[in-house]
UniProtKB/TrEMBL annotation:
Name listed for the protein in its UniProt record: Glutamine synthetase
Database matches in InterPro entries: Gln_synt_N, Gln_synt_N_sf, Gln_synth/guanido_kin_cat_dom, Gln_synth_cat_dom, Gln_synth_gly_rich_site, Gln_synth_I, Gln_synth_N_conserv_site
Gene Ontology molecular function terms on file: ATP binding; glutamine synthetase activity; metal ion binding
Domain GS catalytic span(s) in chain numbering: 110-482
Gene for this chain: glnA
Organism: Thermomicrobium roseum (strain ATCC 27502 / DSM 5159 / P-2)
Keyword Cytoplasm in annotation: yes
Entry's EC annotation: 6.3.1.2
Keywords: ATP-binding, Cytoplasm, Ligase, Magnesium, Metal-binding, Nucleotide-binding, Phosphoprotein
Length: 482
């Protein structure tokens, strides 16, 4: 369904033929959460696809000030799909945000940033297409509660699969098939209790128009899973990430569970990553493939890698953009904390998958950037990764200073380990890096100074500072009796 409509007229025909009663308009705020407003299908006209539909931009995180609040949503007909969760027949369209006075796209609209990044790629003449394949991990919990009060704060998580339930003896049956920490990768039922939920989500994604390659349980205990989508172009894949998160959350809720994409909800086990596969193409040819080089990577691909790793500190402010992200980016949880590249090596920031090799598999050649997590805004994160890679190509940056490092970097002798740079250890450090190193993001007016300043300010004031000023429960463990 997503991508099957080609025009506003096609959308109106679909509304009539499918008996659609409600049209739901979706857009993404600056931090990366879907927002929506609905109208009776009878009220949608061809003119709305040109003039847009008004909303209050001052009530959206990271958007307008109150004195300039009026904004417009312009539906993109190519994004139309029928909402599988709505009891009332509902058609969803993803929208672009437009300034009503200038009639220009809104510079802080994340989707517009992604569209500009794709246009910049074509304008440079390096490639005409970039392909993206994020591996988005999530947890499905049976219970979560949290509170943040001046005199009490904390959280509680429970899962039928959680290893901490192996000794539960509360009068209800305990069947014993819990999953030990770090042993959740690929166990069959009865250990994997969320097979049907993931299958239902995968089939709904396919029904919506988001092709799925596979799904499976992930490494962590307590219901960690992953559903892999087939690659797509930058903006389309960012749209699909938003659809993916919507589907997972609502399927879980339907089954009395709750899903989270929080990077590190559990201490002592793997967190949720969003390893992002990417490649550049021109005239139907994968520019990242070269038979005679390391891991069958072209010189262009190696320069792209060098761009990602040169700007990694600043890049993480957009790809790993929460305080919780840096509780995931610690050694020994398959976390890519080492600024290096390597084939088949999951301890490096960049892995070159080697599942398929040879000229007959040239289309599969890609690089996997592993630090991102699903707390990011996918439109901004994909655009930023592309811009970093393109900077590496344009400046012909040398990847050799970052590897290849074909060893387990966690087991290097101390003197060698000290020579391998690590990613930033906190959101504050990543934001400082973005303030120092961002000119490459401004090329082609893809990102604007206003957007970056707004991003840094929002993250510091609304997230980083609010976390820093609150006592942490572990501080009581450490210091209460001091």
């Amino acid at each position: 369904m997503y991508g099957s409509c080609t025009s506003p007229e096609h959308v109106l025909d679909l509304i009539r033929s499918r008996g659609i009663q409600i049209v739901d308009l979706r857009f993404t705020d600056l931090p990366g959460t879907w927002q929506h407003a609905s109208l009776p299908a009878s009220q949608l006209s061809l003119a709305d696809f040109e003039r847009g539909i008004g909303f209050d931009g001052s009530s959206i995180r990271g958007f307008q000030a109150i004195e300039e609040s009026d904004m417009l949503l312009v539906p993109d007909p190519t994004t139309a799909f029928i909402d599988p969760f709505a009891a009332v027949p509902t058609l969803v369209m993803i929208c672009n945000v437009v300034d009503p006075e200038t009639r220009q796209p809104y510079a802080r609209d994340p989707r517009y940033v992604a569209q500009k990044a794709e246009r910049y790629l074509r304008d440079l003449g390096i490639a005409d297409t970039s392909f993206w394949g994020p591996e988005i991990e999530f947890f499905i919990f049976d219970h979560v509660s949290y509170e943040v009060l001046p005199y009490r704060m904390g959280f509680a998580i429970d899962s039928r699969e959680g290893y901490w339930n192996s000794g539960r003896n509360d009068g209800t049956p305990n069947l014993g098939y819990t999953i030990r920490p770090k042993e959740g990768y690929f166990p069959a039922p009865p250990h994997d209790t969320f097979q049907d939920i993931r299958s239902e989500a995968a089939l709904l994604l396919e029904q919506i128009g988001v092709p799925v390659e596979m799904h499976h349980h992930e490494v962590a205990t307590a219901g960690q899973g992953e559903i892999d989508m087939r690659r797509d172009t930058l903006t389309a894949m960012a749209d699909k990430v938003m659809i993916y998160k919507y589907v997972i959350k609502n399927v879980a809720r339907k089954h009395g569970c709750t899903a989270t994409f929080m990077p590190k909800p559990l201490f002592g086990d793997n967190g949720n990553g969003m390893h992002t596969h990417q490649s550049l193409w021109r005239d139907g040819t994968n520019l990242f493939y070269a038979a005679c080089h390391y891991a069958e990577l072209s010189e262009l691909a190696l320069s792209y890698i060098a761009g990602l790793l040169t700007h990694v500190d600043a890049l993480l402010a957009l790809t790993s953009p929460t305080t919780n992200s840096y509780k995931r980016l610690v050694p020994h949880y398959e976390a890519p904390v080492n600024v290096a590249f390597s084939k088949r090596n999951r301890s490096a920031c960049i892995r070159i998958p080697m599942y398929t090799t040879g000229p007959e598999n040239a289309a599969a050649k890609r690089v996997e950037f592993r630090p991102p997590d699903p707390s990011c805004n996918p439109y901004l994160a994909f655009a930023a990764m592309l811009m970093a890679g393109l900077d590496g190509i344009q400046r012909r940056l040398d990847a050799s200073r970052f590897g290849p490092l074909d060893v387990n970097t966690y087991q290097l002798p101390p003197e060698q380990a000290a020579q391998v740079k690590s990613v930033p250890g906190s959101l504050g450090a990543a934001l400082e890096a973005l303030e120092r190193d961002h000119d490459w993001l401004l090329e082609g007016n893809v990102f604007t100074r206003d957007l970056l300043e707004t991003w840094v300010s929002y993250k510091r004031e609304k997230e980083l500072r609010e976390v820093e000023v609150r006592p942490h429960p572990y501080e009581f463990y450490l210091y209460f009796d001091i």
